[in-house]
Amino acid sequence: MHTRRLVKRSILGSRVYAPSPTGDGAPVTGVVQAVKQENRDASAAGARRSVYTVLMQDGSLKEFTEEEIAAGSKGPLKSSLKHSSSNGVSDSHKLEGGCRSPEAVDEQRPSEGKRVGRDPDTRSVSLLEQKRKVVSSSIDVPHARRSEEEVDMDKVTAAMVLTSLSTSPLVRSPPVKVSEGLSGSWKENGSAGPFTPSSNSSSGGYWSWSAPSDQSNPSTPSPPLSADSFKPFRVPSVGGVGSNPTGAEDPSLDEQDGSSLLFDEPIPRKRKNSMKVMFKCLWKNCGKVLSTTAGIQRHIRTIHLGRNCDSDCSDGEEDFYYTEIKLNTDSVADGLSSLSPVSSSVLSPPPPPPSPLQPLSHQPESHRPSHPSDSKEPHAGGNTPLSRSAPSALYLIHSDHAYQATAPVSIPSSSSNSSSTSFTPTNSFSISWQSPPVTFTGNTVSPTENQVFGEQRSQTISVLSSPPRATTALSRKVRGEGKKCRKVYGMENRDMWCTACRWKKACQRFTD
DNA sequence: CATGCCGGGGC
DNA sequence: GCCCCGGCATG
Description:
By secondary structure, this protein is an alpha+beta fold. It has helices spanning about 1-5, 65-70, 75-80, 90-95, 105-115, 125-130, 150-165, 175-190, 225-235, 235-240, 250-260, 295-305, 330-335, 360-365, 395-400, 455-465, 470-475, 485-490, 500, and strands spanning about 15-20, 30-35, 50-55, 60-65, 275-280, 290, 320-330. The protein has four domains: about 1-115, no CATH class; about 115-325, no CATH class; about 340-480, no CATH class; about 480-510, no CATH class. The longest helix has 20 residues, at about 150-165.
């Protein structure tokens, strides 16, 4: 990480002073053409130096160390743009005297100026972008070029764009393409070492590490889904960055990998607008889920990365510690709405929050979460106390799915309680709550009451993987016993059917 | 296999 | 919203 950070923001094109080649002490000016890192290996402690390739006035290229250049002026970084040196003479003046040297200077600077005003929108255009990304946002160097305001604005707008993009399922992919593009072509420059002397096009590593993995195929045509393109990028963050305090990111990543497969519509039949996007922290043992990128970034930044400052000083690193998950809000809605009678059947009053006068009074209590945040369902007849409080959003998600269960309607008017434990004082009906349709991780999803926080992650995964086609026995209306239009009129008189029957819907004429 | 019905798509 | 159909569960 350090190594490439050293390059800091590019000073390419900057005018610098260099020791006179003649040795007469009179400094000469030149334009930085390239920067190299010396002894990159031993960079850890310090003593790492940059070597600047400088285009001299006379058109020759020379290399100077940082110190040499610094000796010539007050340092390369300051020399070019704003005021610089000690004598108070403006830069331009010195240039007048020193080097009104040719095109090189004028050529370089405009191009460099481009970088400064970089537009967050261009994040999706990675190839172009990488040329501008010379100014890495992850650089912790005194802001020589960009004023604080610039940075702030950049972050803010970027955050806004990110948020808006990732909130809408339709437009989610763009922000991710950054990584996708960078990981491909940009990788070569990044890992091949220092910048090549190829003038101003110095491809900068936007993220300070190069992708060692070959998982990212350089020319991914157009992956529509973001989850995959996310993945290869996150992996290098483990080995490459080394900034992971715990150093144990792998498990979560693995799980992430596993679950990310589930992101892309496992279900052939997809429902419209039924997905809500959430963001889940991938930090080990965290798994916090928030609804906005800003929120999750803030969470990671403050909680895990230990950065106190607000969103301003973000370097984007948070992006790699959360992922995007989709929640099937639709099924949630279904489940909730199923509490009210779906069909005209008079049977089985659902455990209805809206009707407190129900005789089965104590039952609704435990069932009435009043908000979905109440954790596990009491399931079939389990008279669990309502004590459990589940603060985490995960529980919210989970219990939502639990509500998919509907009250089965199969009740012969007599007594036989069809399902397990009866909890109702009356014997005329029973309401059985089924375990949530989610069955992925086996242990956690089972109706067990013992919910541990540590299992949140798998909870989430199971949620993600939960097929909307829930436990069909419940969600599906039980087949009616009586005759239906089809039977009554027969296929030949199909026009006499009720419309529902004609449409293969639940018969409206002969309801059970 | 016939039937009932859900989810979804086309218009 | 009307209409139809694929597909699934059930008997």
